[in-house]
Design brief:
Elements (H helix, E strand, L loop, with lengths): L7 H8 L9 H9 L3 H42 L4 H16 L3 E8 L4 E8 L4 H4 L2 E3 L3 H9 L3 E3 L12 H10 L3 E9 L2 E10 L7 H63 L4 H12 L2 E6 L4 E5 L7 H14 L3 E3 L2 E8 L2 E9 L6 H39 L7 H10 L8 E6 L8 H16 L4 E5 L2 E7 L3 H16 L5 E7 L5 H17 L6 E3 H12 L5 H12 L1 H10 L3 H10 L4 H8 L3 H15 L6 H17 L4
Parallel strand pairs: 15-16
Antiparallel strand pairs: 1-2, 1-6, 2-3, 4-5, 5-6, 7-8, 7-11, 9-10, 10-11, 12-14, 12-15, 13-14
Helix pairs in contact: 2-3, 3-4, 3-8, 4-8, 8-9, 8-11, 9-11, 11-13, 15-16, 15-17, 17-22, 19-20, 20-21
Length: about 650
């Protein structure tokens, strides 16, 4: 018998891990050698045993590879850092260990109520990789509902589960035919499905199903571990945030207590709004504006621009309504109120975010600011009464004890021997309500005192004594500024300058006559002095309340036709008359002043004669015409 035809040949084949087909070689050689049937049967039996040994060795090798893969998976779970990496490793191992074309995993989406593709390995179809499956649809739906593995050798033809167009299109584009799916379970709950699939018909044996089930169990453990880690991390972050919040709250409470003590001390020692603003920024950081009810600056600490007026009004109104500070962009607003009265606002631009306790500090500062402003107002009102009583005594007749008046004035910081002007404010500045009258008087008192002067209410009017010599400028400034406060035109007449207590009463009387003259001239809402109105103003000031009507009648009768002619034709007859009388009746000098030819002046005066009558140049008529021209100019000073 040939050696090549002995059973030893099969051992050699096993030793070099030959393919199964090579085990037919010894039998083929034995038959060719013509060995007897007994020897052939012996060789056939040896081949069968050798193939069984080969199959056993192959299963053991495969089992060793599977166990190695499971061991690697467990190692991945033990060092879990990123859930996606672990799941991709499990799906990849499933594909390799089962020799599948594709492996993939779907997970349930509780929020959307469907299942989505979580991980794929070996997939080439983008549509398949982005599939979302309705609950209960496809092979995966059957696996999830039953909680047991399912395998199909031909997915498109299998009617055991519910097909949908979207799933079948994705599976078809991927080219899958045989699919094995096993559940991912956490306890009794299914959270998804792990799949292995081939692009050709293939039966999945029991060992492969068991292997995929093991990998699915590891995947479920990975998912649950990641969830627990995430929950633990979230809990730790919440504890850290809570600890940070507690520390911040404790710190803010300490700041609030320190700020309370500091602002209390400010009130007790008579501090001002500037001190409150400095205290707030020292405690909270940033920059701060303190504004009064009209939006004027009371104090500024740090670099901060005044906010937009409309935005500030809206924010302060919201703060007043809500009774607490409000935020608009980077700025915090706290209304300064006393009862129902709006007294201003604090505007803070902090360096850091404000917590509730920090907001309370800003709100407490607004209360302290309101208290200080009330104190300041009370003191100012008391001082105003003293200053008003002094001015009332100075302009009263007869004047008594000028030395005593000088002494009282010095105590108030007023030098009666320095030049002063007297400004009388018309009744148009004072509304019908007492609060409006008090507001005007309060403004006048503040306006005068800040300039070293005095203010008082007398006979329903307000009078101011202001240092300086520009009576007209002072009257116009008072009329302008008080008009803004009252929201209506204000008329102010002035006189002066006056020096010494003895002359103040007469100066006040002239200021009142100037005020009356402005009304007679139709210049309500303006300011002027007796010097600016001249002798005409003094005359009109003596006329009284009916002067305005008398002036109108006089102007209409005297120069009305000339004024109307200019208004209709756009001519300059009035200017020509003023120039003619101004140069003593010289035609040549009038023409030079008007920058026109002498003939032009002559023609204009002829037109005046036609309008006023031929006797307009006679001494009596000429005086009336000149007086009327002066009154017309005073009524229209800007012309």
């Amino acid at each position: 018998m040939s050696v090549m035809s002995s059973p030893v040949e099969f051992l050699e084949l096993l030793a070099r891990e030959a393919a199964a087909v090579e085990f037919e070689g010894p039998l083929v050689a034995a038959r060719a050698a013509g060995l007897p049937p007994a020897r052939l049967a012996e060789l056939e039996q040896a081949k069968t045993v050798a193939l069984r040994v080969r199959a056993l060795l192959e299963r053991r090798r495969r089992r060793e590879v599977e166990l190695s893969g499971l061991y690697d998976t467990v190692s991945d779970l033990a060092g879990l850092r990123d859930l996606d990496d672990v799941l991709r490793a499990i799906v990849h191992r499933a594909r390799n260990l089962l020799g599948a074309d594709v492996a993939y995993m779907t997970l349930d989406d509780e929020e959307r109520g469907d299942t989505y593709m979580r991980v794929t390995d070996g997939s080439v179809s983008a549509r398949f990789q982005q599939l979302r499956l309705p609950m209960g649809a496809g092979l995966g739906g059957l696996v999830a509902q039953s909680g047991a593995p399912y395998v199909t050798a031909n997915y498109p033809e299998d009617d055991r589960f519910h097909h949908t167009g979207e799933i079948d299109a994705g599976v078809g584009e991927e080219g899958l035919v045989a699919i094995l799916g096993v559940p991912l379970r956490l306890g009794s709950t299914s959270i998804g499905v792990l799949y292995a699939a081939n692009r050709s018909a293939r039966p999945f044996v029991r060992e492969e199903v068991a292997l995929l089930v093991s990998l699915a169990a590891h995947a479920a453990v990975a998912i649950d571990t990641a969830r627990l880690l995430a929950e633990t991390q979230a809990a730790l972050e919440e504890l850290s945030a809570a600890n940070t919040t507690i520390r911040a709250h404790s710190s803010s409470v300490e700041r609030a207590a320190a700020a309370h003590d500091r602002m209390t001390a400010l009130v007790l020692r008579g501090g001002g709004v500037e001190d409150v603003a400095a205290a707030v920024t020292d405690v909270l950081g940033g920059a701060l504006l303190a504004l009064d009810a009209e939006g004027r600056l009371l104090a500024r600490v740090g670099e901060i621009e005044e906010p937009d007026r409309a935005d500030m009004v809206e924010a302060v109104a919201a703060s007043r309504t809500e009774g607490r500070s409000v935020r608009r962009g980077r700025l915090w607003y706290a209304a300064v109120v006393a009862g129902a009265e709006n007294m201003g606002a604090l505007v803070l631009r902090p360096d850091d975010e404000l917590v509730d306790a920090d907001q309370r500090i800003l709100e407490r500062a607004s209360l302290v600011t309101a208290l200080l402003l009330l104190f300041r107002r009370t003191v100012a009102e008391a001082e105003g009464r003293v200053r008003g009583e002094l001015l009332d005594d100075l302009i009263a007749r007869p004047l008594r004890d000028t030395d005593a008046l000088r002494s009282r004035a010095r105590r108030l910081g007023v030098d009666l021997d320095a030049p002063h002007v007297l400004v009388a404010v018309g009744d148009d500045a004072i509304a019908a309500t007492g609060s409006a009258r008090q507001r005007v008087l309060s403004w006048a008192t503040t306006y005068a005192s800040t300039r070293g002067g005095l203010a008082a209410a007398r006979d329903g009017r307000v009078v101011l004594m202001l240092p300086g010599q520009d009576a007209g400028g002072s009257a116009r400034a008072v009329a302008r500024d008080l008009s803004r406060v009252t929201g209506r035109p204000v008329t102010a007449g002035s006189s002066g300058p006056s020096t010494g207590p003895a002359s103040l009463a007469a100066t006040f009387a002239e200021a009142e006559r100037c005020l009356t003259a402005l009304g007679a001239l139709g210049r309500s809402g303006q300011g002027a002095s007796t010097a600016e109105l001249g002798f005409v103003g003094l005359l009109l000031g003596a006329v009284g309340d009916g002067g305005d009507k008398d002036v109108n009648r006089f102007l209409t009768a005297t120069v009305g036709p000339v004024v109307d002619y200019d208004a209709r034709r756009g001519t300059a007859l009035v200017r020509t008359l003023e120039a003619y009388f101004g140069v003593g009746g010289s035609l040549a000098r009038a023409a030079e002043l008007l920058h026109v030819h002498v003939n032009t002046v002559t023609q204009r005066l002829e037109r005046v004669g036609q309008l006023l009558g031929a006797d307009w140049q006679k001494p009596e008529r000429a005086l009336e015409v000149q007086l009327a021209l002066r009154l017309h100019r005073l009524r229209t000073p800007a012309a």
